[in-house]
Structure formats: C-alpha cells, structure tokens
Amino acid sequence: MDALSKAVEAFTNIFTTGGNTFVGLVTGILPPVIVLLTMINTILKLVGEDRVNRFLQVLTKWAVIRYSIMPLLANILLTVPMEFAAGRFLKEEHKTPFYDAQVCLNHPPLLIFPHIHPSEIMIVMGIAQPIIDLGYSITPLAVRYFLAGLVVALIRGLTTDWMYRFMQRRKMVEATATAQ
C-alpha cells in the first residue's frame, strides 16, 4: 500500500511541477515577449510593409548582410517559422545559403530576444542556469552567445553559397560535356 501511495504522489507531483513551471513562465517570460511583439508590430505598421519589403530587397545585394543581418532581422521581426518567408526577397541561388544561416540563428539570440523561438527557451536557459545559480548576470553570456551565433551563421551562409556555386558550375560542365 505504501508503494502505491508513493507512486500516486509521484504522479501528482509531475502536474504540480508542470503547473509551477507554467506559472513561472507566465509571470517571467510572457510579459516581456508580449510587449516586444507589440512593439515590433507597431513599428512595422508605422513604417509600412512596402517600405520594409523594399529595405529587405536592398539588403540582399551583399553576402555579408544577406547571411548575417537579414536572418537576424527575420528572426526578430517574423519569429519561427515565419522567418523563412524572408527568403522570398532572395535570388534562387541565395535561398539555400540563407536558410542555412537562418537555421543557425534560431537559438543564439534567445537570451536577448526570447520571442524568436519561445518553445526553445528552456534549452538556452539550461545553458544559462549554472551562471544564474552562481549569482552572476547572464547578459555577458547572452551577448557572447549572440555574437558567436552571428559569426557562425555568416560562415555557414558563405560556405553554403560557395558550395552551391561550385555544384552549379560542375553541373554546367557536365551538361556541356554531355551535349558534345
């Protein structure tokens, strides 16, 4: 009987712990996320969607911006999964490298912009928790994690862009050789 009581108690503790976690999220992360999303949507409405579209088309001309700043802006303004829609401003040969850079930037900015991918915040907070437990601020970690993610996204975008062009040239050479 004692074992059955402990099993039932353990089972109900799962829901109590889940409820406490939910309350912590609602009182901790939810208000800043709602305010941030409201601010971003207000800015988009004030500036105008057409202007934002034209601005993003200009940004796609330069590879460094295309694979670092543009994925970051798409993350902040559109969040997951709509961030990938920003690829519509790109030429076809730039869509694959943009996607690679975009995927790379889903987690690094989460400590600064938790609205980007809120379902993944627990992963990043798991990394930050030991620093919080020691009584330190996580802001330096957030900035470093963010900057490292931006650099890695740029490297991945440029590398994928190079590989895509290499494979396209190779395909053209094979098609020319086959035609002769």
Task: Walk me through what this model shows.
The chain is an all-alpha fold and about 180 residues long. The chain folds into two domains: about 45 residues; about 130 residues, no CATH class. About 75% of the residues lie in helices and about 0% in strands. The chain is built from seven helices and no strands. α4 crosses α5, α4 crosses α7 and α5 runs antiparallel to α7. The longest helix has about 40 residues. The radius of gyration is 22 Å and the shape is elongated. The model has no long low-confidence stretch (mean pLDDT about 85).
What's the overall average pLDDT, rounded? 85
Into which percentage range does the β-strand content fall?
A: under 5%
Sheet having the most strands: none
Helix content: over 70%
Low-pLDDT sequence parts: none
For the record, give the distance between the C-alpha atoms at the N and C termini, rounded to a whole number: 84 Å
Shape: elongated
The arrangement of helices and strands along the chain is: HHHHHHH
Q: How many beta strands in the DSSP annotation? A: 0
Number of domains: 2
The SS-based structural class is: mainly alpha
Task: Name a few traits of the molecule.
7 helices, mainly alpha, 180 residues, single chain
Q: Would you spell out the secondary-structure blueprint of this structure?
A:
Layout: H1 2-28, H2 30-47, H3 49-59, H4 63-78, H5 92-104, H6 121-133, H7 139-179
Helix pairs in contact: 4-5, 4-7, 5-7
